[in-house]
Amino acid sequence: MKPWETASLPEIEGLPGPGTLRWTPVRRHFDIRAFGVNAYTAAEVGQDVVEEHTEQQNGHEELYVVIAGHARFTLDGEEIDAPVGTLVFLRDPTVRRAAVAVEAPTTVLALGGKPGEPYEVSVWEFDFAAAARGKTGDYKGAIAEIDSGFELHPEHPTLFYQRACWRALDGQPEGALDDLVLAVELGGEKFRTWANEDEDLDSIRADPRFPA
Question: Under a CB-based contact definition with an 8 Å cutoff, are residues 188 and 153 in contact?
Answer without folding.
Answer: no
